[in-house]
Amino acid sequence: MTAQGLWDFFYRIFTLSADFSQVAGPVGIAGAVGSASAQGLGELFSIMAIISINLAIINLIPIPALDGGRLLFVIVESIIRRPINPRVAQTVNAIGFVALILLMVVVTAHDIFKIVG
User: Fold this and answer.
1) Which of 32, 51, 93, 116 suits a disulfide with 64, CB 3.0-4.6 Å?
2) pTM recorded for the entire structure
């Protein structure tokens, strides 16, 4: 279910119809962990497990600058039987990194606006 939810979210990002109320950045995660810890150790461990699973799946998404992006480069290199041009790999990774930072800023801003508003 986690992978399906992430797939739907990233699909909606690219179609410009993403619903940011269903995701949380660092601020929202801190709040969720605080709430879970107030409910007991079991809830705290559950939220920690969910966060860990989400991070593992997100890290495997084939986006440049993540491990999944590096894995994609290795697969492409094994298919074409030569290394990818380092300049191309660096440019693609830089674009992926900028996109990830932009997504993080948007999600964190949304978290802050939920708290303030």
Assistant:
1) 93
2) 0.74
